[in-house]
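Thread: "does anyone have the structure for this chain?"

Original post by V.I.:
We have the sequence but no experimental structure in hand. Need at least a predicted one for the grant figures.
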Amino acid sequence: MELNKARNIIGLRVLNDNVIWLWVKDKSVVVVDPSVYEPVMRYIEENNFHLKAILQTHHHSDHIGGTKSLIKKWPNVKVIASSKEKKRIPFQNVSVEDGEILNILGEEVKIIEVLGHTSSHIAFFLNGENPVLFIGDTLFSGGCGRIFEGTYQQMYSSLERIKSLPNNTLIYCAHEYTKGNILWALNLKPKDQDIKNKLSEVEKKLSLNELTIPFLLDEEMKINLFLRAKNLEEFTFLRANKDLWV
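Reply from O.Q.:
Generated one for you, tokens below.
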């Protein structure tokens, strides 16, 4: 388990490459996509935190795997998920829709639907001077989510929505995939200096056993080929190419 503090958000490294985010304010904590139970429970108890809410971006088991046990231990916790996912996330008790605004830990959190990876994927956006986006599996540093249930058009549109957010948005995705994504991008764009610089930065962080995420939207738009795609056709080519890349 690895901890990496950025602002008041803590990353717990679990499984092979998952990252569970804990958003802490005073002694209250919100957990994003708890894939497993034990590390989350231990961290909350060791720090005497009060679990207020669990944010679920989508239904995949490596995002909801620890939620039932957390609910059992903290039965009053709010479990916030898409209203479209009542069957696959049946333990949700706060069902939300695109554009809805919630008050969590005293801050406004906007629900942004980002379809493509699944048919009901949502993100949680905290606006303000230093915006934050919990994006789940829609966008990764240097990459984007595989299209399992949605369409190329849906994923492309979701990325366009993300690009419309403030440039200084700090993005918290759910997997440490950065190095592989950057190596793929360099395979396509071997002379791209921004991508080369990103690889050096990533390798340095990994050598220090640090997380390469979160990442700034402004910087990501320079190195992420999916965000740089000028149209649906280009995006579709890139996604298909990445699916075949080893």
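V.I.: this helps a lot. The two ends are 27 Å apart (CA to CA).
O.Q.: and The longest strand covers residues 18-25.
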